[in-house]
C-alpha cells in the first residue's frame, strides 16, 4: 500500500509541473505576440505614416506641397524619395508653364490671323477652326469642332481638295468663288506629319478685295485704251 501511494504522489506532482510549464509558455507566447504587435505599430507609424503624407502631397500637387517639404528633411529613404519627387515636380512645373505659354501664343496667332485655318482629321471631322474661318463660313464658334467638313464649309470643292491632299500626302491648292456672298478665295491643303499625321491643314485666303481691285484695274486700262484709240 505504501508503494502505490508514493507513485500517485509522483504522478500528481508531474502533472502540476506540466501545467506550470504550459502556462508559462502560453504567457511567453502572449507577451511575444503583444510585443510584435507593438513593434509593428511603431514601424507602421514610423514608415507608413510618412509615406501616407507623401502620397497625399503627391495626389494634391501642386495645391499642397507642405507634406512634401516636411518629408524632404528626413535622412532616410523616404526623404530621398521626397527630394527626387520634388526635383521631378519642378521639372514638370517648368514644362507645364512652357506649354501654357506656347498655347497662349498659338491661340493669339490663330485669333488675329486674317486667313482662315481649319484642321481636318482622317475621318473628315473638324478638329480646329480659327475665328477668321468661322467668319468666312458663317459658322458658330461652339458648333464646328467634331462636325464633318462638308457640314462646316458647305463647299464640295474644299472637301475634294482635302481628300486629294490626304490621299496623295501632298500639298494642293485651288481658287474658287463661294456663294452666296460671292467671295473669291484661295484654299491651300497641306498634310500634317508627326503626332498630327493623318490630319490636313486647310488655309483659306480671302482674295475678294484683291480680285475686285484687279477687275477695276483691268476695266480702267481697257477704258483708257478704248479712249486712246
How would you describe this structure to a colleague?
- With 229 residues, this protein is of the alpha+beta class.
- Helices cover 64% and strands 14% of the residues.
- The chain has 7 helices and 5 strands; from the N terminus they run αααββαααβββα.
- The protein has helices at 2-59, 66-72, 77-112, 131-136, 149-153, 156-168, 208-228, and strands at residues 116-120, 126-129, 172-178, 183-191, 200-206.
- It has a 5-stranded antiparallel β-sheet, with helices on both faces.
- The termini are far apart.
Give a brief description.
The protein has 229 residues and is an alpha+beta fold.
Shape: rod-shaped
Largest sheet: 5 strands, antiparallel
How large is the count of helical segments? Answer: 7
Rg is 41 Å
Number of E-type strands: 5
Q: Structural class from helices and strands? A: alpha+beta
Strand content: 5-15%
What percent of the residues sit in helical stretches (DSSP H or I)?
55-70%
Low-confidence stretches: none
Distance between the termini: 167 Å
What value does the average pLDDT take?
A: 79
Major sheet: arrangement of strands: 2-1-5-4-3
Order of helices and strands: HHHEEHHHEEEH
Topology at a glance:
Blueprint: H1 2-59, H2 66-72, H3 77-112, E1 116-120, E2 126-129, H4 131-136, H5 149-153, H6 156-168, E3 172-178, E4 183-191, E5 200-206, H7 208-228
Amino acid at each position: 500500500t505504501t508503494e502505490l501511494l508514493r507513485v500517485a504522489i509522483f504522478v500528481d506532482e508531474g502533472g502540476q509541473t506540466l501545467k506550470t510549464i504550459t502556462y508559462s509558455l502560453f504567457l511567453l507566447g502572449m507577451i511575444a505576440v503583444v510585443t510584435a504587435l507593438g513593434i509593428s505599430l511603431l514601424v507602421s507609424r514610423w514608415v507608413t505614416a510618412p509615406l501616407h503624407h507623401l502620397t497625399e502631397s503627391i495626389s494634391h500637387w501642386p495645391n499642397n506641397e507642405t507634406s512634401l517639404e516636411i518629408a524632404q528633411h528626413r535622412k532616410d529613404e523616404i526623404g530621398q524619395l521626397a527630394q527626387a519627387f520634388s526635383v521631378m515636380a519642378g521639372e514638370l512645373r517648368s514644362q507645364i508653364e512652357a506649354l501654357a505659354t506656347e498655347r497662349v501664343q498659338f491661340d493669339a496667332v490663330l485669333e488675329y490671323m486674317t486667313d482662315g485655318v481649319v484642321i481636318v482629321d482622317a475621318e473628315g471631322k473638324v478638329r480646329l477652326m480659327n475665328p477668321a474661318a468661322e467668319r468666312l463660313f458663317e459658322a458658330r464658334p461652339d458648333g464646328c469642332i467634331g462636325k464633318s467638313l462638308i457640314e462646316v464649309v458647305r463647299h464640295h470643292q474644299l472637301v475634294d481638295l482635302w481628300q486629294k491632299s490626304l490621299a496623295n500626302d501632298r500639298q494642293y491648292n485651288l481658287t474658287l468663288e463661294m456663294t452666296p456672298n460671292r467671295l473669291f478665295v484661295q484654299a491651300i491643303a497641306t498634310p500634317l506629319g508627326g503626332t498630327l499625321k493623318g490630319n490636313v491643314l486647310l488655309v483659306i485666303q480671302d482674295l475678294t478685295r484683291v480680285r475686285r481691285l484687279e477687275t477695276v484695274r483691268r476695266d480702267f486700262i481697257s477704258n483708257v485704251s478704248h479712249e486712246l484709240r
